[in-house]
Design brief:
- By secondary structure, the protein is α/β, with parallel strands linked by helices.
- The chain has five domains: about 90 residues, Roll (Ubiquitin-like (UB roll)); about 70 residues, Ubiquitin-like (UB roll) (Roll), CATH 3.10.20; about 140 residues, Domain of unknown function (DUF4445) (Nucleotidyltransferase, domain 5, 2-Layer Sandwich), CATH 3.30.420; about 140 residues, Nucleotidyltransferase, domain 5, CATH 3.30.420; about 80 residues, no CATH class.
- The protein contains 18 helices and 28 strands.
- Helix 10 crosses helix 15 and helix 12 crosses helix 18.
- The chain is globular.
- It starts with a strand and ends in a 6-residue tail after the last helix.
- The relative contact order is 0.11.
Length: about 600
């Protein structure tokens, strides 16, 4: 099987084109996990020397008759039984490098990490001092013989001491000697902070002496090929143990690749990285650790473990110093994971009397409301619509995605990421588009076209479509459009977010308009047009100067936990003040959700 335009060839037993792509690490979208729902894995079979199954009913829903005639198929539905094929992946079906926000709240904290280094020049052995090498080392380090140490370090201890002329540096973490190094290396103490998101993984290399972020890298979470949403991944991981191991391996390999990148760019050796602190929602947390997330997905939604825990890197195969530690920031409960805890650490809403609302929009949206007197938290299944999935021309925030839209007198203007030719529209662009269509009187509060004689509305294959970008301007030469069904999908996701914070405000006993501050977290929040988000009812319409673009708060909070034991030790006390609200058992959720779907207007 040869995939173009990359020219990558993959061999294997009979399987679907999507499975061949997975096997060869080919960049092909598959937001629904290969069940034929999203229609994003569209490919064109250019050459076929063998047999393939015919188009399925699911394909006929997503592909026009003309496309099928031209050899287009959904990769998840087309199965090669024998022979060879050349498959072209059109631009809109390829994954690309996502735009990540670099701006945000300052996470500076006085460095006080869990890793300490001590340089020692030991006295050489004599007949007058016959202490063992290890006792001699512990005596100089002022640590007890009960300090833990691995057999591997003890194995190299005699030669290292003598080859270094008894001048060595010990790295100590959690009352354990995790590294013994020749000479004075006290100026080389590094750590890694990782945010494992449902759709992306962000990795920061941190100097634990200065607190400076040395390098940053990010990647798509390859688990999206097994489902864009976390429920799909729970289902896949729960089917058989091998599936769980596969999802774990994917994210570990991705993190290792990102570590390689930041080390190379930062000029840092892997063995000088002594701790990795990670955050993520409860499902991502479990998948990374290789723990089944099965029971998070069924009532009463209980994680297997949620407290602050650490493991040695060699247990997971993470590419830092093998004796170093992997530390998991605590979870809150249910689907609300350590990414929400990281949001708390960086916004510090628990330290102020002001009532603040924190919204971290994504496939799974975390919402926090409160102050120093108490905090409420909930998670809303906003679905992948904000990531561009379930939208016919939708895509992630990668090069060529329409990220902002304006409509004036029925003229549509837009900008794309990297100023590239448009390939589709991402979440921030969808917010602008729907709000502008509503303000221009093109759609109703429920997302229906008011006047189908509008010159930008054409009759599509299955339903009327509003033209965002004409084919003569797009990369693939086809119109980029939005349908009533697309708008409805988006409004359903928007309604989920709005109903979440509305319920929290009701339970907290405060009117949303009386909130002192709103924090919009994550890359998505940074690119949102505030006025349009308020028009749609995604956030409360408070004084605009009190709405804060918080940036990548999850990785920022992870860096705080990495750099400061003082801040890390406060987590247990902070989390005692957080009340987890499970929306699915709230009696008002259904009615509030239905009321939250229509467009509210500014």
């Amino acid at each position: 099987m040869t995939f173009e335009p990359d020219g990558k060839t993959v061999s294997g037993s009979p399987r679907t084109l999507l499975d061949f792509a997975l096997l060869g690490n080919v960049a092909l979208r598959g937001e629904c996990g290969g069940v034929g729902i999203c229609g994003k894995c569209k490919v064109q079979i250019v050459k076929l020397y063998g047999t393939i199954n015919g188009p399925t009913e699911k394909e006929k829903k997503h592909l026009s008759e003309k496309e099928i005639e031209e050899g287009y198929r959904l990769a998840c539905q087309a199965k090669i039984d024998e022979g060879k094929a050349t498959v072209y992946i059109p631009p809109e079906s390829r994954t690309g490098k996502r735009e990540i926000s670099s701006a945000g709240l300052d996470e500076y904290i006085e460095p006080d990490s869990s890793v300490k280094k001590i340089n020692s020049v030991l006295k050489k052995t004599t007949f007058e001092d016959i202490r063992t090498d290890y006792d001699r080392l512990c005596g100089k380090l002022s640590c007890s013989s009960k300090t833990e140490v691995s057999l591997k370090i003890l194995e190299k201890l005699p030669e290292l001491l003598r080859k270094s002329d008894w001048n060595v540096t010990a790295a100590i973490c959690k009352n354990r000697i995790i590294s013994l190094e020749k000479g004075d290396t006290c100026d080389k103490i590094f750590g890694i902070a990782v945010d494992i998101g449902s759709s992306k993984v962000i990795c920061h290399l941190v100097n634990l002496i200065t607190g400076e972020t040395v390098e940053r890298a990010n990647s798509e979470n390859p688990q999206v090929m097994f489902g864009e949403d976390i429920v799909s991944r729970i289902t896949y991981a729960s089917k058989e143990p091998e599936n769980l191991k596969k999802l774990q391996r994917l994210v570990i390999d991705t993190i290792n690749s990102l570590i390689d990148t930041v080390c190379k760019n930062g000029g840092v050796l892997h063995e000088n990285i002594y701790e990795l602190v990670f955050v993520g929602n409860s499902v991502m947390h479990h998948l990374f650790l290789g723990i089944t997330p099965k029971y998070i997905g069924v009532a009463p939604f209980i994680p297997a473990v949620g407290n602050l825990i650490s493991f040695q890197a060699k247990e997971l195969g993470v590419n830092i110093n093998e004796e170093g530690f992997i530390t998991a920031v605590p979870l809150i409960g249910g689907f609300i994971g350590s990414d929400a805890v990281a949001n708390l650490l960086i916004t510090k809403i628990y330290e102020t009397d002001e009532v603040s609302l924190v919204i971290d929009i994504g496939t799974n949206t975390e919402i926090l409301l409160g102050n120093s007197k108490g905090i409420m938290a909930c998670s809303t299944p906003s679905g992948p619509s904000f990531e561009g999935a379930h939208i016919s021309s939708g895509m992630k925030a990668v090069s060529g995605a329409i990220e902002s839209v304006k409509i004036e007198e029925n003229d549509v203007t837009f900008t794309t990421i990297d100023n590239a030719k448009p390939k589709g529209i991402c979440g921030s662009g969808i917010i602008d588009l729907v709000a502008c269509m509503y303000n221009a009187g093109i759609i109703t509060r429920t997302g229906k076209f008011k006047d189908k004689s509008n010159p930008r509305i054409k009759e599509g294959e299955k339903s009327p479509e509003y033209i965002i970008a004409e084919g003569k301007y797009t990369e693939n030469g086809k119109d980029i459009t939005i349908t009533e069904k697309d708008i409805n999908e988006f409004l359903l996701a928007k309604g989920s977010i709005r109903s979440g914070w509305k319920i929290l405000h009701e339970k907290y006993g405060i009117d949303p308009m009386n909130v002192d501050k709103v924090y919009l977290a994550g890359s998505f929040g940074t690119h949102v047009n505030i006025e349009n988000a308020i028009t749609l009812g995604i956030i409360p319409g408070i004084d605009r100067k009190n709405i804060v673009f918080a940036g990548e708060t999850a990785v920022g909070g992870a860096k705080i936990a990495l750099k400061s034991l003082f801040e890390r030790d406060k987590l247990e006390k902070i989390l005692k003040e957080v009340e987890y609200i499970e929306l699915s058992v709230e009696s008002s959720f259904s009615s509030q959700y239905l009321k939250s779907i229509p467009i509210t207007g500014a």
